[in-house]
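Quick note —
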Amino acid sequence: MSIRETSWPTGTPCWVDLAVPDVPTATMFYRVVLGWSFVDTGPELRHYTVCRTFRRAAAAIGSAARSDQPAAWTVYLASDDADKTAELIVEHGGSLLVEPTDIGDYGRMCVAVDTCGGVFGVWQAIETIGVEITNEPGSLVWTDARLTDPVAGKRFYAAVFGYEFQPVPGAPDDYATFLVDGRVAGGMGGMLGADGWPAHWLAYFSIDDVDATAADALAAGGTVIRSPQDTPFGRTALLADPFGATFGLHGPLLTG
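Predicted structure written out below.
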């Protein structure tokens, strides 16, 4: 089991959370689809709800800040200094939606927009590192940055987080993995078939049976945007929850 107990290296996707207008309805959906249990952090944090698998923090669900805010998953990238990272974001052409702010004793964060318009978060761990489990059913297994201008986007993320890039055989020419401390930490490229969508980060969650989970999501009020399919990297699907927030599934290839 892939358990993490120390802070993630700077630039690593280290947390994901969902903003929705109705947290109880969202938790019911994700309990069915991803098998999560939930811990409500209480009124001080507006009932921000931690999603757990194998009794470890895997993600979170919170109330949207505004009534007109679209439901969406946000991928957070680790930083050892959120204020410095925020300065680099602005210096290299990005912008800030949420200025660096303390989240109790848990950590310090900001929310930013890259040069392509993609939204992402920055998390500086204090007491809470973010994701405590990966690559297990119900946990984060991969993140992609889908960029309308992958050349400019890669330049931005390299300048802010120090990413290096590595081509992926069999993938589109503009797609590459990004490396943190020499290790693959995620993927970055063009829109990968999502033409007409804005730039965005996409979180994939590991699951044992992608087809069954997609069917469960449909029955629970979600939408299957891209049906389960085998890829060179596993079996995947793209879903939307009842509020329209998109996320990916990743599991083993079908056999037989």
